[in-house]
Amino acid sequence: MAVAIETRGLTKDYRSPLKEPGLWGGVKSLFDRKYKDTRAVDGVSFTIQEGELVGFLGANGAGKTTTLKMLSGLLTPTAGEALALGHVPWEREASFQRSISLVMGQRSQLWWEIPAYETFKLNQAIYGLSEADFRTHLDELVDLLELGEHLSVPVKKLSLGQRMRCELAASLLHRPKLLLLDEPTIGLDVVMQKAVREFIKAYNARSGSTIMLTSHNMTDVVELCKRVIVIEKGRLLYDGPLDRLVERYADHKIMRARFTTPVDPADLKAFGNVVKYEDSTVTLEVPRAKMAAAAAALLASYPVADLNVEEVDIDDIVRRLFTNS
Amino acid sequence: MPVLKKYWRIWLRTASMAMQAQLTYRLGSFGFLLGKMIRLLFFFAFMAAVFQHVESVAGYSLVETALFFMTFNLVDMTAQIFFRGVYGARRTVSEGDFDFYLVQPCSPLFRMTCSSVDFLDIVTIIPVIVMTGMVFSRLPPIGWQGYAAYALLMINGVALIYAIHVLVAGLAVRTQELESAIWIYRDVMFMGKFPVDVYAPAVRWALTVGVPIAVMTTFPAKALLGRLSPAWFAYAFALTAVALPLSWWFWRDSVARYTSSSS
Amino acid sequence: MSPYWVAYKIALQETLQRRSTLIMDRLGGFAVVVSLYSFWTALIGDKATFLGYTRAEMLTYVLALNVLRSFVFTGRGWQLVGEISSGKISSYLIRPVSYHGYALSLDLAQKTVHVAAAIFEVALLAALAGGEIFLPRDPAVWLMFAAAVVMSSLLFFFLEFMVSCLAFWTSESGGPLFCFELFLQFAAGAFFPLDVLPLALRRTLELTPFPYMVYFPVRVFLEKVPPAEAMRLLGMEALWLAAAFTAAMMVWKRGVRSYAAEGG
Fold it and tell me: Exposed e or buried b for every residue in A161-196, given b needs 16+ CB within 10 A?
C-alpha cells in the first residue's frame, strides 16, 4: 500500500498586527507596528496510506483547517516537511493540483446566478478534461449524487442540500486521488449531513481515493472514519483507531432531563454521574451500554418533562485527552 | 502552444459565464450601459462645444484633442475588459474564492484579474473604436511608422496598467485592506482624458514619471502626431520593462505570505 | 438628546475612523480638480475672458465645484439601496424615528468631513497655483449663495432618494442609480459651466431642476446674477425642492407599502 501523505514536524505561525483601539492608537500603529505571533500548527507529523479515510478532530482554532490548507498547497508552512502524492504541496505543481481537490463547508466555487453546469464546464477547462472524460465523470457523479435537473437551474435557486451536492460534483469531476474536506457538513440539517456522509463513504470505496476530513461534529467522524487524528492548540494529541479513542475517552453519553417538579440530585446518582443540576434540569453522564436502561428507568420513576440524549462534545473529549497526556 | 490554448479557453469560459450572470440583471445592466454611454457622449459633446469657442487648447486642435481623448478611452477600456477582476479583489479573498484559485491548476493571478469580464465593456468599446476611426480619418496623412508607434505604445500602455493592477491585486492578498487603492487609480486616470500638456509642468512631470498616466494615454497619440521624441519613446518601454517584473515579484511575495481568511 | 444629533455624531466619528478610505477618496477627488483646473487654465490661455468668465472667475468656478461636489453630491442613495435589498430597512421602519431625518443626519456628517477637506484642498491648490480667486464683497451674495447651496443639497438628496426607492421593486436599482448620478453631474454643471453648451441645449436644461444644483449657485457666487433675478431663481429652486420632496415621499410610501406586503 503506497503512502499518500507524509508530514514531518509541520509548523505554521501566524503574525497578526496588534491595533490599539481609538484614534491615537490608529495613528501610532502607522509608525510602530506591533505584532502578535500565534503558532497555529506545532510540529505535526503523521503518515496516511492511499485509500484511507481519516478524520481530523479538534476544537475550533485547533489547527486542523490550517493543516489541511498546508496539505492542499494553499499555505506555506513556517517549518517542517510534507509530501502528498509524491509532491511538495506548496510548490503547487499543476500535476499535483490536478490530482487533489479541496472542499470547504460554507464556501462554494459555484457561480451564484447561473446553473452549476456552467461551473462544471469551467472546471473541465481548468483541469484539462477531454470531452469524453468530462461526460463520463459527470454522468457518474450525477448518478451518485442524484443531481438530475438541478444542473440547469441557477445555483441561487437551489436548496442548501442541492447546492452542497453540486459543490461536491464540481470538486470531483477530475477524479482527484486526494480529497480534502474542511467541515463538509457544517450548517447542514441532519438529513443532509447523513446524505453527505453516505456519499463520502461510497466515493471512498468506489474510487480508492484518499480522503481527509476535518470536523468538530463527532457524528461525522464516528460514521466515516476508522482512524482519527486529534489536534489541540496545534499539537497532535492522538493518532489511531477511532474505536479506541471513543472507548478510552468517550465511554459515556450525556443525558439531560428536565423535571416538572424539583428533584433532589442526590437521588439521581443511581442513573449516572451527575454533572450539573440547575432549574429542575439535570445533566448526567451515563456509560454507553447502560444508556437505554437508565433513560427508561428515569422516565418510569420521575416526572420527566423533557429528555435529551447526546454524544459527548468533542471539546470535552479533547479536554480529557489533554489532561490525560 | 497548449498552455495558451488552455488559458484562452478558460478566459472565454469565464467571460461567457460572466455575461450569463449579468444578463440575469437586465434592468441593472441597461442602467450601467446607459450611464457609460452618457459619460462618453457628454464628454465628447463637451469637447466639441469647447472648440466652438476656441481654436486650440495647449497647442492642440479639436481633432487632435479628440485623438487624445479617444486614445485614452481605447487604452482604459481595453484594460477594463481584461483586468476588471482586480476591482473585486478584496471580496474574492474574503469570500474564499481566492483559496480555490490557489488550489486549482490555473494561475491565481490570471483568475483574479480576468474572471470578471463585463460584457458591457466589450459592447461599449465598439462605438469607441468607430469614433476613433472617424477621428483618424480627419487627421492629416501619417506614415506607417506613425501608426506602428501608436499601436506599440498603446500595447505598452495596457501593459503598464496591467502592472498597476497586479500591484493592487498583490496588496489585496497581502493586507486584505487597501482595495480603495484601485479606486484612486480610476480617479487619477481621469487626468489622462486630457493631453498632458494642459497640465502645469510640475503636474506633467508627476504624470510622466510618478504615476505614468501620460505614458499610457498621451504618448501613443503624441507619437502618432509625430511629437514624441525618441528618448521618451524608449523611456516608455523601459518603464514597462521594469514595472512588469517588479509587479510580478510583488505578487509572488504576497501570495507566499498569504494567510487565508477563516480558521 | 435628539436621536438625530446622536446619529450625526456617531456617523461623524465613523467617517473619521475610516482614515484610509477617506484619504483615498479625497486624493482621487483632488486629482479630478487638478485636471479640470489645468484644463480650464490652458483653455483660457492668454485671453482676458472666456465665455464671459475672467480668469479669476473661471478658476473660482472650478474650485467651487470641488467644494460643492462634497456638499451637494453626497447622498444616502447607495446606502438606501443596500438597506432595502438586505432587509435592514425593516428595523428602521419600526423605530419611532423618521428614516429621512436619520438619513439626513448621517448624510450631514459625511458632508461635514468632506466639505472641510474640500475647502482645505482648494485653498492648497489656489496657493500652489498662485491663481486669483474671486470672492464676492456683498454679504447679500453670500447669503443667497448659502441659501441656494442648502437647497441644492436637499434637492439632490431627495431626487437621489427617489431613484434609490426603485430598490423596493427590483434588485437591480444600481444601474439606474449609476446612470442617474452621471447624467445629473453633467446637467448640473458639475464638470463644466453650462455656458459651454449651445444655447438651445442650455435653454432645455434650464427647464429641469439640474442646473440649480451647481451652475446656478456658483453663478450667484460669482455675482453674475443680478439680485432680482437671483431671488426669482431661488424661488424656482425652492419650488423644485418642494416638488422633489413630495415626489420622494410619495414613492417612499408606496415602496414601504409594497415592501411590507411582500413580507420583506
Answer: bbbbbbbbbbbbbbbbbbbbbbbbbeebeeebbebb
**How many separate domains does chain A show?**
2
Q: What's the predicted TM-score (pTM) here?
A: 0.81
- Look at residue A17 and tell me whether its pLDDT is greater than 80: no
- Which of A152-156, B49-53, C68-72 comes out lowest in average pLDDT? B49-53
Tell me which of C166 and B185 has the higher pLDDT: C166
CATH number at residue A213: 3.40.50.300
| Axis-axis angle for helices A131-145, A116-127 (nearest 10) | 140
Residues A225 and A312 in one domain: no
- pLDDT (0 to 100) of residue A67: 92
CA nearest to B111 within chain A: A126
All 3 cell numbers of residue B44? 465628447
CB–CB contact A26 C16 (8 Å): no
Domain shared by A234 and A298, yes or no: no
Report domain extents, chain C: 3-262
Decide if B58 touches C, using CB distance below 8 A.
Answer: yes
All cell numbers assigned to C264: 420583506
Q: Verify whether the Cβ–Cβ distance A26 to C17 is below 8 Å.
A: yes
Q: Is residue A16 part of a domain?
A: no
What is the ipTM metric for this complex?
0.84
Q: 509625430: which residue's cell?
A: B226
In a domain, A21, yes or no: no
* Average pLDDT in chain C: 84
**Mutation target vs B (from C33, C66, C196; most B CBs, 10 A cutoff):** C196
Closest-approach residue (CA) in chain A for C15? A23
pLDDT of residue B178: 60
Residue in B35, B184, B199 closest to C179 by CB = B35
Counting as contact any 3 or more CB pairs under 8 A, the partners of B are A, C
